[in-house]
Amino acid sequence: MPATDLAPRKRPKNRKAQIALVAAELFCERGYHLVGIDEIAAAVGISGPAVYRHFPNKYAILVHATRELVTAALDAAREVPGDDPAGVLDAQLAALARFTVERRKVGALYQWEWRYLAEEHRTEFRADLAGLDARLVAPLRRLRPELSAGGAEFLVRAALSTFGSLTTHRAAAPKARAEATLHRLGWAMLRADAPPAAAIRSARGAAGRAAADAAEPLVPGLESRRELLLAAAIRLFRRLGYHAVGMEDIGAAAGINASSVYRYFPSKGDLLAAAYYRASDRLAASTATALRGATDPGDALRRLVAAYVGFAFGESDLVSVYLAENNNLPEPDRHELRKVQRLHVEEWVRLLTQARADLPATDARVLVHAAINLVTDLGRAVRFTETGGVPAAVAQLALVALHTFPES
């Protein structure tokens, strides 16, 4: 036997980072609560006890993974020295585009899975994301001094939302082409018009009121008990995540005894499915209404965008649940509703390729996902009201995204 076969195998120096990355990919693919330590260990190629040499529990892995993701993003967005703000932003956007493509499989940590962090770690995560925004806001305001601080932040969030869209779908995108497309999308957002400063201040005030309202129990009115339970479940699923909410929590939020909840919904899965079918029905209805009377594909696309903005801002809790909780649906409902989601995206793609005959369907699909994520991401992050010009500005940004030219 060769001497090399007798030598003990060395543990990789980066084992902790390897475990965190593999775990993050599994969390994003299947959801944090559906992944176990043994599954993480098997994917890494080690034993379950070996994981505990590096992390005391699964939650510690989630904390480490989210910290590492934001740290890497902050590093990509570091402001390079120079007097040219356009050059600084170009370098930042290129680095963030490359980072996004490389970390595509773990982007859902930013999109959804961070909800399962404890409040102290959520606060830390939000502060780090604000720091990421600030790194781009500073050179943007030097480049465009007419922008208010809020306006610049709005455009930066829009740019980062188009980047984040790559992590929300599986549409094929060669690495170099995806990076170039994200780079162009980022610039398209940063060059766009921002809402009036007064509108953004108003939206922030509404966001604070909405956050306070989210903590208050629902007040029964004329709604049926079934409607109260569904509304409470949607709100709690959005704020805490499906697995962090129990049927008793939903009953308490709706002002209904826990024992009575099961008379209306046999299980929490049935409640989640009801929320999805409601979202699908309302989205289909708003789409059909918007497209009625359209004069050409371009007009239809503008109507579709406006309708989606109205739907996403008017039903922000429902839309967030609709986008985040696919993996937790009962199996038959999951397949059916994913098909409905794909058909909705394909309707956008069909209209976009009709309006832009030069655009291949593969590129159109990437731009459509960017526009959709832009709308829903801004709606979730800031809870904008439907006044003050903000929805119109978001709709315009979505149209800018749809008309961005990918790398040729």
Automatic annotation (TrEMBL):
<dbReference type="InterPro" id="IPR050109">
    <property type="entry name" value="HTH-type_TetR-like_transc_reg"/>
</dbReference>
<dbReference type="InterPro" id="IPR001647">
    <property type="entry name" value="HTH_TetR"/>
</dbReference>
<feature type="DNA-binding region" description="H-T-H motif">
    <location>
        <begin position="36"/>
        <end position="55"/>
    </location>
</feature>
<dbReference type="Pfam" id="PF17932">
    <property type="entry name" value="TetR_C_24"/>
</dbReference>
<dbReference type="InterPro" id="IPR009057">
    <property type="entry name" value="Homeodomain-like_sf"/>
</dbReference>
<dbReference type="InterPro" id="IPR041490">
    <property type="entry name" value="KstR2_TetR_C"/>
</dbReference>
<feature type="domain" description="HTH tetR-type">
    <location>
        <begin position="223"/>
        <end position="283"/>
    </location>
</feature>
<dbReference type="InterPro" id="IPR036271">
    <property type="entry name" value="Tet_transcr_reg_TetR-rel_C_sf"/>
</dbReference>
<feature type="domain" description="HTH tetR-type">
    <location>
        <begin position="13"/>
        <end position="73"/>
    </location>
</feature>
<protein>
    <submittedName>
        <fullName>TetR/AcrR family transcriptional regulator</fullName>
    </submittedName>
</protein>
<dbReference type="Pfam" id="PF00440">
    <property type="entry name" value="TetR_N"/>
</dbReference>
<keyword id="KW-0238">DNA-binding</keyword>
<feature type="DNA-binding region" description="H-T-H motif">
    <location>
        <begin position="246"/>
        <end position="265"/>
    </location>
</feature>
